[in-house]
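Field reference: sequence -> structure
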Amino acid sequence: MTIAVLRRVLTMAVTLLVISALVFAIIKLPPGDFLTNRIMELRSMGEAASVAKAELLIRQYGLDRPVYEQYLIWIGLMPGPAGFSGLLQGDWGWSFEYDRPVSEVVGDALWLTLVVNLAALVFVHLVAIPIAIYSATHRHTAGDAVVTVLGYVGLAVPGFMLALILLFYANIWFGLSIGGLYDASFTGKPWDWPKVQSLLAHLAVPTLVIGLGGTAAMIRRMRANLLDELAKPYTVTARAKGLPPLRALLKYPFRMSLNPFVADIGNLLPHLVSGSVLVSLVLSLPTVGPLLLDALKSQDQFMAGFILMFVALLTLVGMLISDLVLVWLDPRIRMGAR
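Structure field:
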């Protein structure tokens, strides 16, 4: 198992290298870049000092070099004007839009993104699994019909629309503002226990909004998988031999029905990040989604490149986690891996 994990980690490193090349190439596809466009604007305004600063940044980050050299400098495989200073060395680059290092701009946004989306992930599983089990074991009952209708509603309602509805009625009915992840009074202040409490209080709404669509989809899929497993001969045999109903359900059918969802963890983590951009904009969440949108619109290449690499890393780590959980969950996969 250790050798298999090490092999996967090596494969992940090679995959990240290939993804980094693709990300950099796509970002460079539009003509020009932020600094070049900014220099043209400054020259037209006659601001010589600002033009000199922008040209200095171009030379400092090697933007006047060929594209392949810019890429190698960005990832840290080639020395630039400041030596080896790229992603591999922990230098995430400079955000030209914010005129600050990328690490400062995305500092809190990175871990707040992880907190919000992990909370949504936990919410999806804690809510969807019991409801799916109930729906599959009470087929064609009133409760099953209610769950089915609510599932379709959850799939049909976009997350940003639900966020707008909650914003409107929370203000109309209760006079509350549910935007952001903490009270405005804590903005720019260091993290302490009162700020953490404010974060936990504000976390409920984005967790509900982001997780609702995934919850509805998981209920429908898991119900179908569980019904399929319950109809198989081994389940019928277990019941015929007198195995208690709850144990007959949880011992094998439930575990086997989890396999597709565990395998989807690698896709679910980045989907929660990329799929919650509009929700983050509506709820004013300080996550990486709005930062990525701004970076792509302004061609802030280092900011956009780092965030896309962060999402790619989430995907690969999620796939590794899903494979390890699958090996633990299903003995047949463990035997096949040996």
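Note: The longest helix spans residues 107-137.
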